[in-house]
Amino acid sequence: MLPYINLFPNYGTARQYETPDYETYLDEYVRICQPDYLSYDHYALNENLVLSGDGFYGNLETVRATALQHGIPFWNIVIGCHFSDGMAYPGPAMYNIQIYSTLAYGGRGVGYYTYYEYSWDWCNGSVCDTRAPVVNGRRTESWDYMRDINMQIHALAPVYCTLKSVNVFHTGRIPVSARGIASSVYVRSAGDGDFLVGEFADPDGTPYLLVVNRNLKQSVPVNLSLKEGGKLMRVAPDGQGLKPFEGIQAQLAPGAGALLKIED
Fold this sequence. Notes:
Layout: H1 14-17, H2 22-33, E1 38-41, H3 53-70, E2 74-79, H4 92-104, E3 109-113, E4 134-135, E5 138-139, H5 141-160, E6 164-170, E7 187-189, E8 195-201, E9 207-213, E10 220-221, E11 225-226, E12 231-235, E13 242-244, E14 251-252, E15 257-263
Parallel strand pairs: 1-2, 2-3
Antiparallel strand pairs: 4-5, 6-8, 7-11, 8-9, 9-15, 10-14, 12-13, 12-15
Helix pairs in contact: 2-3, 4-5
């Protein structure tokens, strides 16, 4: 078994880190503990389904850079239920944006806080309406949402886990600390919309993209233009091989993502 230590997010304090800044905190942890992986949590979605993107993506940027520097994978623990006032309630878009964003940044593991109902009185001095996936030993509607995203990721994993993260960029509004499409290795343009795109390569050098719709209210069509040409094939989230990324296959639900292979 691997020892497990979960690190603070980037909205912690210098007193918690016991270092001058967050980057040093991560570096010192790796230097001292020599872990096989990085794990941290970050809760950035409010109950109106607004993502605190500068902080959330800034954290992914920093952890990704540290993980790549030291050659270790990283895990992200995200909101799994409404565990505190102001936090998001579970729904497809809530799970989509957190999980697919983590994958676009090259994350190799995800976890949820929390899976079970509990009786902590964080919400105005009373027990929270958490809408957790499991309450009193019974599955809730939230369990179905979590199952759906987990099944998608399990279907993508055989391909995704072979890939190496090459670059990450955003279109539309660019979060603080993130990069725009000018940094892209493979993509010339992405059409209209707020997208996150992770760029990857497999062991043979074949390029892949993981495109995420950052719009949490609407489905959005994706219109990618590639620098070197090629055909986009979607790794089916139902495990049914590759499908052309066109028509309805090129529409992304709120917060959802698509893993794409660039074929000659």
